[in-house]
Design a protein that fits this description.
Elements (H helix, E strand, L loop, with lengths): L4 E4 L3 H13 L3 E7 L6 H5 L2 E6 L10 H10 L4 E3 L9 H9 L3 E2 L4 H8 L1 H10 L14 H11 L3 E9 L2 E6 L2 H19 L4 E5 L5 E9 L5 E13 L2 E7 L6 H18 L3 E9 L5 E7 L6 H8 L3 H9 L8 E2 L5 E8 L1 E2 L5 E2 L2 E2 L2 E3 L6 E5 L6 E2 L6 E9 L2 H14 L1 E3 L5 H9 L1 H5 L6 H4 L11
Parallel strand pairs: 1-2, 1-4, 2-3, 4-5, 10-14
Antiparallel strand pairs: 6-7, 6-8, 9-10, 9-12, 10-11, 11-15, 12-13, 15-22, 16-17, 18-21, 19-23, 20-22
The structure holds adenosine-5'-diphosphate (ADP).
């Protein structure tokens, strides 16, 4: 049975995006907000809104009892978590289950198995998916030393429960290993409350290529192709595109088949993403699974014509996928993340008031944002101002259209990554499709927007 009322447990552009999808399905949307977001667009757009606490996320958007209570008191049947905050928290999924609320995402036990990076790698190995070489699971200093000697330096020490580009440390030589291990473990303990580490070989150059899936409860799996996310700063994505210029048809089909097999093995449900690194050998190696919608999901929507949020809601309501196998796709899509941060100062966050906001219009351009002129970007949350998503028939046409759209975009009052994105789009590396996860750092000093004024 389709839902009549759904709670959106998030804020910002993703809350707006989910409210829109609910309305298109004829479902009422209930927003939640912290006192910092009282006048935010997601609150205004929803049919009802419930204040869940003060600005710090730990006291509002991360407070499970407050959110469950908001859903119960407003008579919601389901909860959409968006991305970030509680989206990958199995305790939240269980709290929803216990209150008879449908969580729009995978079941808690799948999330537990796949959300833990170490267990996810075990599951994927069992499904026959190639992994980035490293330790078999969480490892102490001695096991890490042996694995590092075998894999060769540099290596990554990763927090088993890390995420969002945090909890990773490069160790370049044997001498750094002991102190690096202690520091990484302490950091992980402080950030995530768990100091367990595992080791991975650093693949270099590497490309980040991820596969989007949708799975129904009858075992139906649909793969929506890949997103190339190698333009990154500090291991965080800035520009994404689909298809990836790095994949030939054969590798793409192989990756989608492997992921479909993995989904069947682990009993995956709803929307999810399987992240891989393409190594210098051209092979693909699994790094992690994201059991939720991702920031860059519109890129896949643009090339497949499938509305991922609508599908998430339909699947959570018990409906089946209409298609299975590999989704047909067409053309090329690019997403630019416009963040309020200063690329010339190490991407330092630049919160403030957006005094001017003119989004680009025109054919093939989609803007996902929760900004308006006069909007505050509160310092408490992420610095995403808008996502500019562009579609066109070919990659060169899509690049030209993205340049046009970014040139039309006006954001005043805060420093953003707009100029940096224009510089990247103009670079030979991006134009040629020949870039890796280290390209942005290598362009430092060559791109006007990356040089201090
Ligand atoms: P998070 O969950 O914090 O986002 P990921 O495991 O997804 O962390 O990695 C984020 C990024 O870090 C990747 O896209 C890639 O650029 C880099 N990275 C992670 N693991 C490796 C590795 N073994 N070798 C090279 N780069 C890596």
């Amino acid at each position: 049975m389709m839902f009549t009322r759904v709670l959106v447990a998030n804020r910002g552009e993703i809350a707006v995006r989910v409210v829109r999808a609910l309305h298109e399905l004829g479902i009422e949307a209930v927003a939640v907000y912290s006192t910092a977001d009282r006048d935010a667009p997601h609150v205004e757009l929803a049919d009802q809104a419930v204040c869940i606490g003060p600005p710090p996320a730990a006291e509002s958007y991360l407070r499970i009892p407050n959110i469950v209570a908001a859903a119960e008191t407003t008579g919601c049947e389901a909860v959409h978590p968006g991305y970030g905050f509680l989206a990958e928290n199995p305790a939240f999924v269980r709290a929803c289950d216990d209150s008879g609320l449908v969580f729009i995402g995978p079941p808690a036990e799948v999330m537990e198995r796949m959300g833990d990076k170490v267990r996810a790698k075990e599951q994927m190995r069992a499904a026959g998916i190639p992994l980035v070489p490293g330790t078999d699971g969480v490892a102490g200093l001695d096991a890490v030393r042996r694995a590092a000697q075998e894999a060769g330096f540099p290596v990554f020490l990763k927090a088993a429960v890390g995420g969002g580009g945090k909890g990773m440390r490069v160790v370049r030589s044997e001498d750094e290993l002991e102190s690096g291990y202690a520091a990484a473990s302490a950091e992980a303990e402080a950030a995530f409350g768990d100091g367990s580490l595992y080791l991975e070989k650093v693949l270099s150059p590497a490309r980040h290529v991820e596969i989007q899936v949708l799975c129904d409860a009858e075992g139906g799996v649909l793969t929506l192709g890949e997103r190339e996310c190698s333009i990154q700063r500090r291991h965080q994505k800035l520009i994404e595109e689909s298809p990836s210029p790095a994949l030939d048809d054969e590798t793409r089909a192989e990756m989608e088949t492997a992921v479909a097999r993995a989904c069947a093995t682990i009993g995956y449900r709803n929307a999810g993403t399987f992240e891989f690194l393409l190594g210098p050998d051209g092979g693909f190696h699994f790094i992690e699974a994201n059991c939720r919608l991702q920031v860059e999901h519109p890129v896949s929507e643009a090339v497949t014509g499938i509305d991922l949020v609508r599908e998430q809601v339909r699947l959570a309501a018990g409906e089946r996928l209409e298609l299975a196998g590999r989704a047909p796709r067409r053309g090329h899509a690019i997403e630019i993340r416009i963040n309020a941060e200063d690329p010339a100062r190490g991407f330092a966050p630049a919160p403030g008031t957006v005094t001017r906001f003119r989004p680009p219009l025109g054919a093939g351009v989609r803007i996902d944002t929760a900004m308006r002129e006069g909007s505050e970007i509160p310092p408490y949350y992420d610095s995403l101002v808008a996502k500019v998503i562009v579609w066109d028939e070919t990659r060169p046409a899509a690049i030209a259209r993205t340049v046009r759209a970014l040139s039309d975009l006006e954001v005043g009052g805060v420093t953003t990554t707009r100029e940096l994105a224009l510089d990247v789009l103009a670079s030979q590396e991006f134009q040629g499709g020949d870039y890796s996860t280290s390209t942005l750092a290598e362009l430092q000093g060559r791109l006007p927007s990356l040089s201090p004024a």
